[in-house]
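Anyone have tokens for DUF7993 domain-containing protein? Sequence:
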Amino acid sequence: MVEERITDGKRIAELLSSELSARETGALAPVSVIDADRDATPSNDGTPAYGIAIGGTNVGTVALFPEYARVTLSVGVEAVVKAAGKAGVPARREDGTAVLQVESGAAVKPATDVIAAAVESQR
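Reply: yep, here.
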């Protein structure tokens, strides 16, 4: 069996959007995808694809790069960086935000858990 690894930034962002939008219970229940640009295409500088909101408040952005999606969160920065380290998702602090680099389709689930940690830190 041949395993195909998803490394296209747009497809990774689509998978992440599905994970964030599909939760009706648990930590991600108040999370929604906002201002989605369905025509966004990956670029070397990062093309904004959609925002992430918690309870209607915009707290993040997902940008498309050719080989990954970048998630920038303005809430729970310390919780995000800590959870990302445990989940094996590349993350860093940058200008008061947490920045995650989601490099494959397989990394979407761990990245979703990291975003859940940001939500939980706000409770």
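The longest helix spans residues 108-121.
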